[in-house]
Structure formats: C-alpha cells, structure tokens
Amino acid sequence: MIETISLGRDFKVRGTLVPAVRDLSFRVGAGEFVGCLGPNGAGKSTTIKMLTGILTPTHGRALVAGLDPTRQRKALARRIGVVFGQRTTLWWDLPLRDSFELVRLLYKVDRNRFRQRLAELTEVLELAPFLRTPVRQLSLGQRMRGDITAALLHDPEVLVLDEPTIGLDVVAKAEVRSFLARLNAERGTTVLLTTHDLGDIERLCRRVLLIDHGRLAFDGSVAELRALVPGQESIEDVVAHLYLSSTPAAPRTPRRTPDADPPTVTA
Amino acid sequence: MAAFVLYLRLFQYGFRRHSTYLAAALAGAFTNTVFGVLRAYVLIALWEARPGLAGYTLAEAVTFCFLTQAFIGPMQVFGRGLSFGDRIRSGDIAFDLVRPAPLLAWSLAEDLGRAAYLTLARSLPPTIIGAALFTMVAPVSPWFPLSFALGVVVSFGWRYLVTLTSCWTTDDRGIHTLSALLTMFFSGMVLPLGLFPGWLRTVAEALPFAAMVQVPADVWLGAEPPLQALGFQLLWAVALMGLGALLTVAARRKVVVQGG
Amino acid sequence: MGSYLLLAWTWARASAQYRTSFAVSIVSSFAINALDAVAIGIVFLHVTTLGGFSLREVMFLYGTGGVAFAVADTLFGNIERLSQHIKAGTFDTMLIRPVSPFVQMAADGFGAHRIGRLAQAVIVLSLALPVVPWSRAWMVPLMILTGVVIFTAVFTLGAALQFLLVDAPEIANAFTYGGVTLTQYPLSVYGDQLVRAVTFIVPLAFVNWQPALYVLDRPDPLGLPAWFRFAAPLAALLLAGCAALAWRAGIRRYRSTGS
Questions:
Q1: How far is CA B126 from the centre of its chain?
Q2: Neighbours of A (≥3 Cβ pairs closer than 8 A)?
Q3: Which residues on A lie below 8 Å from C10 (Cβ)?
Q4: In this structure, are residues A155 and A127 in contact, taking their beta carbons and an 8 Å threshold?
Q5: Which among C35, C38, C168 has CB closest to B26?
Q6: pLDDT tens readout for residues B18-46
Q7: What is the DSSP track for C136-176?
Q8: Is the CB of residue C22 less than 8 Å from the CB of residue C114?
Q9: pLDDT tier, B257 (very low <50, low <70, confident <90, very high otherwise)
Q10: What is the pLDDT of residues B64-102, one digit of tens each?
Q11: Residue B170 is part of which domain span?
Q12: Rounded Cα gap, residues C201 and C207, in angstroms
C-alpha cells in the first residue's frame, strides 16, 4: 500500500544542501498499522509530507496506493486521509458541520454517501454536541475528532496521521486510540502514524519504524524493539537509549559524504 | 529615571520587533518606490502643463511625491491601528489598563521605536531611488527632522484613538476603513492639498491629517514658515494625546470596572 | 471550474450571514478605490488634457483597467495570500485535497464584498462610454476580457514569487496594485523606458492602452506597429503561460514549514 525506494529530501539552508530524509526504503502492506518514531527533527514529518504529496522528494521515489504522490497528487488525495495533530485541516471560523460540507464538495462525495458516513462517524466519535460550533471554539480533543472525521468522509484506503494524540488529555487520547484500532480492524484501513507518545505505539502498532537523522534506523515489531536494548524495563527507556546512542558528534552532513554518517542501529 | 529606562526599553522593543521583518519592510519600500515613480510621472505631466501649480516647481512636486511614499511606513498612512487592538479583541487589554505605566505613554514609546525602524527600512529607499531617477530638491530647513517626528506623534495620537474605539464596538472594520480613507485623502498622500479646490483645501489644511504628511513635506521644501508649521503640528499632537488620555480613562471604566 | 463555483458559493453564503460587516465591507472597498477616481477629478480641475487625453478619455482608461482588475481580483485576487497560507500551514492542507491549491486559495473566504471595487470602476467606465464610437465599441468587452486574463496572470506571478520570498509577500503588490495604478492614466504620461518595459516585459500596456489607441483612434506616441493594438489576446496568452509555468515551478520547490 505504501512503498518508498531510497526516498530522500534535501533542504537548502544558507546555501548548503542539508538532507532531512535520506535513502529511506520501506514497504507497508494493505491493512497494516504502522507507527513511526524518532526524535524531534529526525525527518518523520518530512517523510509524511512526501508520502502525501505536499513535498516533492529530491531523491528516490514513493508509491502510495499505487500512485506517485507528486505527479498524481490529486488522484492520491481521493484515496488517502491525512490528519495533522499540530494544526487543523478544518476552517477556523466555520461551524464543524460547514467544514465537513466543504470537504464533501472538495472530494465530490455523493450527498447520500456523505450523510450516511457522517452519521456513522458522528455516532462513533460523539460529534453531535458540537457540530454547530465554530472550529476555533472547540477543545483540542473535539477538534481532533473533527479532523479525523474530515479525513475519513471520502472513505480513504490509507490514513496518515502526524502526531494525532499530541496535547490530548488521557480520556481524549484513549478515545482516539480505540477509534483508530477499530477503523483498522473493521474496515481494514491501512494506518501510518507518527508519534512521540509510546502509549500509541504499544497499544496500536504491530510494527514500528524508527527514523533517526533522516534514515530508517529500525523496522520491526514492538517486541523486537524492546529486545534491542536488554535490561530496560519500560519502552520509554528503550527508545530514549536508542535516541541517545545514535546522536552524532557533528551536525548532519551532506549526502555526498557517506563515510561521515552517524552510526545507526539496525534490526 | 526608572520611568525613562522603561520607556527607552519599550522604544528599543518596538524597534527590534519590527527589525525582525526586514524582508517585509524592504518589499514594502520597493512597492512604495514603484508607486512613487508612477505618481511622479502623473505630477510631471500636470506640472508641465501648469508650471508653478500649488506654489511648487516641477522638482518640488516630484520631491513631494517621493516624500509621501517615504512617509507611508513611519506615519502608517493607510491608517492601520496600533498593536494593542488585538488585545482589546481578546480582552487582554484589561491587564494593560491596570498597569502602573499609562497605556498611552507605553504604546507611544513602542510606536516611536517602530517608526524609527521603518524610517530606516522604508523611508530611505524611496527617497534615495527617487532622487537617483528624477530631479529632486534637498531639504532646506534644519527643522525637518523635528517636523517629521511630530508627524509620527500626530499619526500615533490619531491611531491611538481609532484603536481604542474597539472597546465600544464589536466590529471595528468600519472605523478602520474610515480612518484609512481620511488619512490617505486629507494627509496629502493622494495629491498635494494645494491642488484641492477652495473650501476643501481650507478644511484639509486644518485637519490633523495634514500634520502627518503635507506639513512635514512642506517643511522639507521650505514651502511653509517652519515655526508656523511646527506650531500647527504641536497643537494637534497635544490635542490628540489629550483626547487619548481622556478616552483611556473611559476605556478603563468600561473594561476594568464594568468587566468588558 | 465546478469546484471553484461550489466553494465560492459556500463561502459567499457564509460571509453574507454577518450582514452589517458585509455592508460595511462593500462600502469600504467602494470608497477606498474611488479615491483614485477623485484624484483624477482634482487633476482635471487644473488642466483640460493630461498626456494629450481628455477627462472622458482618461476615465475610459481608468474604467477599462479598473473593471478588468476588479474582476480578476474578485475571482482570483485571494491567491496573493499565499505567503500567509504557507506560514499558517494551511497551504499543506490544500495540497492534500483533490482540487488544485490555486482554485482552493482563490475561493477561500470568497466574499461578495469585493464587488465594491468593481462597482466604482463600472460607474466610471459607464460615464466614459460616450467617447467610444459605435463602430469600435466591439473592442471594449474584448479588452476587458484580455485585461482580466493579464491581471490574473500578474496575480499568479506575484503569488509564485512568494514561494521564494515567503517573508516578503508585499513585493507582489508592486506588480498587482502598481499594475492597476499604471493603467489608470494614459501611458503617454510615463517615461519611454517604463512604457517599453510594460509593453515587452510585463505586458500591462495591453490591458487597456494599446486597445484604447484603436478605440479612441490615436497615434502611438512610441510609434509601435499598428497591429499591436490588436495583439492584446496574444500578450495575455503568453503571460498566462508564463504564470502557469511559474506557479508549477513554485509548487515543486515548495518547502513546507514546521512540523
């Protein structure tokens, strides 16, 4: 469902090319639930943005639902749903219901299909009390449920979420998690999420990708991730150990000098 | 002494806050220069047909044109309100109104810092490029810097009043547009006030907006006796600030005592 | 096209709900833009011709340029907010939707209040129409249409420039608002170099100047070939092509901000 081949993106920073993501190759099958971990600035968001067609890769390529995100961006948009935890894809000043109506128009969802889907999601995510409230007045938890609904109205095969549980309280987090688990189990939607919350990883993801310094540092199950650092009780300590041990002495180096690359952990 | 340090800090803060937007200021200066060139050609066509119109020579009219463009940044000729407008809308203004330092003095210090920065970033480029492309006249009066500064203060006094009215209205866009209209038209920004017909000219030359653009430009050109010009500006500065102080008292009563 | 209309309609409905601010917006936009027309009136208190053109003729130029600009601004002017969208992260959102971000941005927050600008230009143009001879009147709708295309292309180029200069979006104003200001007066008042630049580089001379020379039957002060008067559609297409390429290049180079 998702495939990347030596995917990479450089950014020009004050005249020099700095790679944010490099040589990233992985494959996610249909119906998988994959979590993406990595320290701040590791390249998770850049990867997500390349997979969703927001950023054009400078190296390699990606295929999502069989489509090239850059060249077939609009076709891909109909088949994937995207949620950003840090910002909303809804319209700030409009009531939630009107935002959904705009989404319907953008995705050309059939009116009856839309009503039915919205009714389902309204019930499961308990949106009814605030459907008429402008988005700016929603609590973070309500807004996140609204954003997830907006991303699913066109019934996508793949759902990509960038830090969907960031800033949510314990209850809201639990609600979002159980909804995503159900979506994946019942509808078979492929889910790829990035997170800093290891609770998300432990409760949801059968598979973990660890991205560090723009590279894939680990790809495997949660149990395999634990086994990497023996003697650590909690998954938090395991991940903290991995982040720390891979910190390079020097700042990130350009792609053309591979020998200067920082050591990475591989499975 | 402590008060002086406070206001100096606020001045520096206003200066520094705007200096982070250098690219935006330079882009603004570029746009002002382009408009200066376009308007200069129109004035040249007018003055070639009617030499000596409004008491200006051709070179003086062109100078006037680039000065109006140079004043846009520091004098905020498009009538944009002060930064505390957002705080009125969010209700945070209540904290500002109960501070020991008066809001009027506080925001004046900050706004002067802003104007000082924009003078460098947005006033110098149009003036210099205008002088390079066209024949312009150099400032004749040593009073120009003072007149320029007074123009900024009058502009501040006006915008302070406009911004404070938000305490009483829910939608302040109407009043801001009205302010922009009055400022652009009656300051001399659109055309020198000397070109206005009879009574309109008399009215325009008496309003505070003239003190923001027309009067400082005339002081540069030596078209008006400097003491008379400065007196006019000072009068409006004092009047607007006085009104501002009164309105602040009313705003405090409204926001702090009545709770918004 | 269909998406644009649906989105614009949804937005217009939303904005009309706030009736007072809606009325205030229309009046404001009318009045602010009418200042330029008032300035022309004041100039003509002192002269009978400017650059060789009478008041009515200048009003014809002002009206045609103004209407073309107002239509382009109403339909697509919103794309000048690209840098705001990039900074707020909303441009990312537009890229994950199955509709072109250009259309989404143009329709975003569409409000009928922008007709204020159009209204004042239409009034000035209708007052100027007596200068147009019947036999040449066919050129007027054509020049407005090509003018709309040229200004839309200028708006697009200005927006494409903001991909590079995210922190300096005001640079686009020099070309968009500067462009319409230029077309308000006969180009004969401007310097030859400037007129050549807006004929051959940014073809604003084709918005109304060249076609108006035909409508008003005037010689070209620069002595450019007579067929230039009919070349506006060609110039508009060329510029539109450049704008489309620049926009695409901008999207390819786009670097999203933040996380």
A1: 16
A2: C
A3: 98, 101-102, 105
A4: no
A5: C168
A6: 888 888 899 999 999 999 999 999 999 99
A7: GTTHHHHHHHHHHHHHHHHHHHHHHHHHH-TT-TTHHHHHH
A8: no
A9: low
A10: 999 999 999 999 888 777 888 888 877 788 888 888 788
A11: 2-257
A12: 13
Closest chain C residue to B21, measured at CA: C167
- Picking from B34, B45, B49, the nearest residue to C174 by CB comes out as B34
State yes or no: chains C and B have 3 or more CB pairs below 8 A: yes
Nearest CA to B147 out of B35, B226, B240, B29 is that of B226
Q: Does residue C24 belong to the interface with chain B, where contact is any CB pair within 8 Å? A: yes
Count how many domains chain B has.
Answer: 1
Nearest Cα to C71, choosing from C147, C158, C8, C184? C147
- DSSP labels for A32-46? -EEEEE--TTSSHHH
Question: Is C258 part of a structural domain of the chain?
Answer: no
- Residue owning tokens 């509709």: C99
Q: How many Cβ pairs within 8 Å bridge chains B and C? A: 97
Query: Please, which residues 126-145 of chain A have a Cβ atom closer than 8 Å to chain C?
Result: none
Q: Is there a domain that residue C259 lies in?
A: no
Query: Containing domain of residue C174, as a range?
Result: 2-253
Neighbours of B182 (CB within 10 A): 16
- Touch criterion met for B and A (3+ Cβ pairs within 8 Å): no
How many whole angstroms separate alpha carbon A98 and alpha carbon C116?
27
Cα–Cα nearest to A63, from A77, A76, A74, A49:
A76
pLDDT bin (cut points 50, 70, 90) of residue A253 is: very low
**Contacting partners of chain B (3+ CB pairs under 8 A):** C
Closest by CA to A135, choosing from C228, A127, C174, A70, is: A127
What region does A120 belong to: left with phi over 0, alpha with psi -120 to 50, or beta?
alpha
- The H helix count followed by the E strand count for chain A is 9, 9
> B89-97: long-range contacts at Cβ-Cβ below 8 A with a sequence spacing of 24 or more?
B89/B166, B91/B260, B93/B167, B93/B251, B93/B255, B94/B255, B94/B256, B94/B260, B97/B248, B97/B251, B97/B252, B97/B255, B97/B256
Q: Contact C10/A105, CB-based, under 8 Å?
A: yes
Give the contacts of A254 (CB within 8 A, at least 6 positions apart). A10, A16, A17, A18, A19
* CA atoms of C212 and C205, how far apart (whole Å): 10
Cβ atoms of residues A21 and A47 within 8 Å: yes
- Nearest to residue B104, comparing CAs of B255, B254, B242, B258? B242
CA–CA separation, B43 and A186 (whole Å): 74
Residue C245 located in a structural domain: yes
Report if residue C166 sits inside a domain: yes
C221–chain B Cβ distance below 8 A for any pair: no
Chain B interface test: which of C17, C35, C38 (most B C-beta within 10 Å): C35
Number of domains in chain C: 1
pLDDT interval class at A213 (50, 70, 90): confident
